[in-house]
Amino acid sequence: MDFSFTEEQQLLRSSIGRFIQEQYRIDTRREIVASETGWRRDYWEQFADLGLLAAAFPEADGGFRSSPIDTLVIMEELGKGLVVEPYLPTAILGSAFLCNGASEAMRADLIPSIMEGQTILAFAYAEPQGRYNLANLTTFAQKDGNSYVINGYKAVVIGAPMADKLIVTTRTAGEQRDRDGITVFLVDRHARGLSRRDYTTIDGYRASDVTFDNVRVDAAAVLGEPDGGLPLIDQAVDAGIAAICGEALGAMKTVNEMTIEYAKNRKQFGTPIGKFQVLQHRMVDMFIAYEQSISMTYMVHLKLDAAPVERVQAAAAAKVQIGKAGRYIGQEAVQIHGGMGMTDELALGYYFKRLTMIDTQFGNVDHHLRRYARAA
């Protein structure tokens, strides 16, 4: 199997890398995270100009996607810069839901707007009692004529403060943990009865806790099949898992490079600490963990269009490897840097926080070990 990147993918990597190096250095990121909005719309417009917002959409919808590897390239480069703009919820998850579950009218209305940078999406799925179980829902949508009335609560909705529309998972039938009876809606951020509590997450992203109090939506806002939305959710989340695995690759590569450079320059007893054999062994182990993560990340991207069981196993296996490797590389890098590894002055701490949060996003290592076993 040929794992080499196409000329277009190499050019895409180069253009994003140049943007990160020239405009998204760590000092700029600090300013963005500390700002009132937590992101920069002018950068988002640059993403649109570079074609990044169209890369996950198929050509039939006006996008540029030729394979899932395109988004792997993008997410890896964004991971190197710890980009906090809402690319994952809008371009990756939004593409998965719209392309696989939206009506023709909804696709024609939203996809061009997303690709042009005018519409931002957020995925509201997590609930406090859920514990990574996508079917464990108390948010309920009651059918009322040609519309639905939504009541409930969603926690840690990444990107919700700047989103124009929310993709919301609800229960429309059955018991709290049933796999059937789940419906997905597209809800406008200004819908009457919708309220948010916005905040900054530990890794610098903006998120909201969202409350739905008799929020009325039209039946045309349904994504996928009414009462049968879980397969669509699983498919979208697996695409999200693949994407954050790519992001983690970029972050891990940067952390390894930082650590090697630090070990070359930091001296102890008049000798660079990189010459100490025990630290060399630890840095080799960090490199091995990164290389293993590359293989698993490529694999899950190649399996996104496979049969559901095969896709689920690939996503779960990749998430386990990324979760373990990300934490290991981050913790070892902090140890080698010493106490300054977690200071705000050094960029390493920001990468460590993001890698730690990636382990928990869409389910941690233990959750995906169980998911893999169930699928097998």
Structure description:
It is a single chain. The chain has 376 residues and is an alpha+beta fold. It folds into three domains: 7-119, Acyl-CoA dehydrogenase/oxidase, N-terminal domain (Butyryl-Coa Dehydrogenase, subunit A, domain 1); 122-227, Butyryl-CoA Dehydrogenase, subunit A, domain 2; 231-375, Butyryl-CoA Dehydrogenase, subunit A, domain 3 (Up-down Bundle). The chain is built from eleven helices and ten strands. The strands form three sheets. Strands 1-4-5-8 form a four-stranded mixed β-sheet, with helices on one face. The longest helix is centred in the middle third of the chain and has 36 residues, at 230-265. The protein is globular, with a radius of gyration of 21 Å. The mean pLDDT is 95.
What is the H level of CATH, i.e. the homologous superfamily of the largest domain?
A: Butyryl-CoA Dehydrogenase, subunit A, domain 3
Please tally the β strands and state the result: 10
- Percent in helix: 40-55%
Proper CATH architecture of the largest domain: Up-down Bundle
Look up the CATH topology of the largest domain.
Answer: Butyryl-CoA Dehydrogenase, subunit A, domain 3
In terms of DSSP E residues, the strand content is: 15-25%
At the first level of CATH, what is the class of the largest domain? Mainly Alpha
Low-confidence residue ranges: none
Total discrete domains: 3
Kindly state the mean pLDDT as a whole number? 95
Instruction: Please tally the helical runs, counting DSSP H or I stretches of 4 or more residues.
Output: 11
Q: Look at the helices and sheets and give the structural class.
A: alpha+beta
- Would you list the SSEs in sequence order as H and E? HHHHHHEEEEEEEEHEEHHHH
Alpha carbon gap, first and last residue? 25 Å
Rg from alpha-carbon coordinates? 21 Å
